[in-house]
Amino acid sequence: MAEAIAFDIAVRLITKLSSIALSQIGQLWNFKDDLDDLKRTIARIQAVLLDAEERSVTSNVVKVWLHELKDALYDAEDLLDDVQTEALRKDLMSGNKLTKEVRVFFSSSNQFAYGLKMGGKIKARFAFIQGQISELKLVERDLPVETPFTAKRRRQTHSFVGKEEIIGRDGDKAALLKLLLEKEFQSEENVIIVPIVGIGGLGKTALAQFVYNHERVKDHFGLRMWVCVSDVFDVKTIVANIIKSVTHQAPNQNLEMDQLQTQLRDKIDGKKYLLVLDDIWNEEGEQWFSLKKLLMGGTRGSRIIVTTRSHRVAKVTSKCQPYVLEGLSDDDAWSLFKQIAFEQRYADSTNPFFLEIGTQILERCGSLSHKDYS
């Protein structure tokens, strides 16, 4: 539907605007002000999208407004991509830090995206679209957590990974296997929770996928389950997804929480299981403890892997020390970069021009190639 599409684009666009403002413009506050203005405008428009969706069913005027918004969001996203690409290209070619060329996003001198007037046109289009909110009497609403578009904000993960996708990490693989398979674990609880913590892009999910599919792990645990949690930590949804991971069939949507928890405990109680809860963001202990109580029926030796970017999540979910994932070594980072970036593989990776650009890009990706956290 138009509203769902527009919401997803708006979320991506606000994220990109935040990213540019924080990491690319430095001291160029005039440019930052323009970006912040656009971000606030889009956020205001985003707040009325649910009302617009409902009213578009009976109002052609609102339906047209939604289509105009969707087109404007697409154009703005394309323009931001061009700004980022061109700024990076100029920076790499010149060897200098970003200078005033990024200011051209909203100026008439923008030569590289959609012609001379696109930046100004996009500002004007969003100002017009926002101005129509009052005329159409659109009402701001909070999006309910159950809406399908909120769940799309972050990627959905799965349990499979090809061995060729994991570069380096031999020490991490061995350490995690030991945590999963070690019999003498100092804990009174049958089910041990092992948090993997690290910033985005370090490979937490890939590492969890590797150990999940390891032959020793398959032999050790009678039951293995994988659930991607992501944005919305809803206990009922997570329980239903755990059941689905066991039975390969979604439970009846009309079941109440009490019926679901009975099904869950019937599947896992008395079994030595491995459960991966991937990409947890919720830092509220109350919700976690509500879920944890339902998972403690496994036999001694059961494990739950939690992957998260947050040290607070790790502290809330487990009494154990979290496994903090560090950056790749320089050699492994370069191997990974070549695998992803060079289409011609060997030919590209020996081209001096590509080598120079690749080296500069890796230097900017400090979290990938260096053990550096903030």
UniProtKB/TrEMBL annotation:
GO terms for molecular function: ADP binding; ATP binding. Keywords: ATP-binding, Coiled coil, Nucleotide-binding, Plant defense, Repeat. Residues 178-345 form the NB-ARC domain. This is Disease resistance protein RGA3. InterPro entries: NB-ARC, P-loop_NTPase, Rx_N. Residues 13-96 form the Disease resistance N-terminal domain. Residues 35-86 form a coiled coil. The keyword Nucleotide-binding applies. It comes from Hibiscus syriacus. Gene3D superfamilies: 1.20.5.4130, P-loop containing nucleotide triphosphate hydrolases. One of its GO terms (biological process) is defense response.
